[in-house]
Amino acid sequence: MKMLSYWKAILTVINCGIIVVHAADFDDLFQASWAPDHIVVQGAQIALSLDSSTGCVCMQMASEGPNRDELDFEFLGNVSGEPYVVQTNLYVNGTGNREQRHYLWFDPTKDFHTYSFFWNKRAILFLVDDIPIREFPNKEKKGVAYPRSQAMGVHGSLWNADDWATQGGRVKTNWSHSPFVVEFQSLEIDACQLSPDGADDPVVKCGKSGQFWWDKPVVKEVNKQRKRQLKWIRDNFLIYDYCQDVARFTEGMLRECLQR
Ligand SMILES: *[C@@H]1O[C@H](CO)[C@@H](O)[C@H](O)[C@H]1NC(C)=O
Ligand SMILES: *[C@@H]1O[C@H](CO)[C@@H](O)[C@H](O)[C@H]1NC(C)=O
Ligand SMILES: *[C@@H]1O[C@H](CO)[C@@H](O)[C@H](O)[C@H]1NC(C)=O
């Protein structure tokens, strides 16, 4: 059994409507919030090693506090030779439970790839190598919560999730494969930047319509292409969608699932 022992990724966070950027420097963007002695920063590269183990490598964009907004990419480990799964999730105002799981069309431990979030007022896209794997359209008009007013920062982490991530917790971490390492190659953020002291009001500074290129209407052709790609992904790589999980949401599906 082999867990995610070595993983590489290019993190590109683009086109975000609102994001907190404390510095333009990669080293400063990536700050160890725990175990700083396990983080190695070399120029534009960062390596995170853990002497215990991992079931999950995560990269997320999130605001702070219990009512946070959050967008997640999570890479779930597996038995040697079995496919890694990418789980995406989305929290709005503190509520998540919006998991989707996909296989990838490549082995994510073999090479760097680009994982990105596109976030504007109309929709959120999760992209892998510029191919959208998931879309969360803004349906606020129909009463669906949408992250719009909270600033988000970028975080990366590596942790042991063998109680749930690895084939639903059946496969346990093999500690003899440690240390586990995650390597980020680069990070790009194109966003409306707020001052780190929290003095800016995100809605006042970043909320004006048509202020940024990511808010401009997309050409029809791009939209069509995106729909085709999303369908290709859904037909070939989707393995779990919370909107289909009737057994789990016995009290009723989340609102956006009823709006398709
Ligand atoms: C853990 O990995 C080691 C080294 O590859 C291997 O010898 C051992 O059998 C593995 N243990 C389990 C429980 O799979
Ligand atoms: C967010 O959730 C809190 C309760 O946790 C609620 O009081 C507040 O109105 C919610 N905000 C929005 C924008 O829905
Ligand atoms: C692990 O491999 C099994 C068997 O191929 C597969 O069914 C599963 O989706 C993979 N991923 C996870 C996270 O369990």
From TrEMBL:
Q: List the active-site residues.
A: E70, E74
So which residues are the signal peptide here? 1-23
Localization recorded for this chain is: Secreted, Cell wall; Secreted, Extracellular space, Apoplast
Report the PTM annotation.
Contains at least one intrachain disulfide bond essential for its enzymatic activity.
Top-level EC class:
transferase
The main location is: secreted
Care to name a GO molecular-function term for this sequence? xyloglucan:xyloglucosyl transferase activity
> Which keywords does this chain's UniProt record carry?
Apoplast, Cell wall, Cell wall biogenesis/degradation, Disulfide bond, Glycoprotein, Glycosidase, Hydrolase, Secreted, Signal, Transferase
Q: Name one GO cellular component term.
A: apoplast
**Sugar-bearing residue positions:** N78
Give the highest taxon in the source lineage: Eukaryota
- Residues annotated as domain GH16: 1-184
> A biological process (GO) annotation for this entry?
cell wall organization
UniProt EC number? 2.4.1.207
Described function: Catalyzes xyloglucan endohydrolysis (XEH) and/or endotransglycosylation (XET). Cleaves and religates xyloglucan polymers, an essential constituent of the primary cell wall, and thereby participates in cell wall construction of growing tissues.
The similarity comment for this entry is:
Belongs to the glycosyl hydrolase 16 family.
* Protein name per UniProt: Xyloglucan endotransglucosylase/hydrolase
What species does this protein belong to?
Sesamum angolense
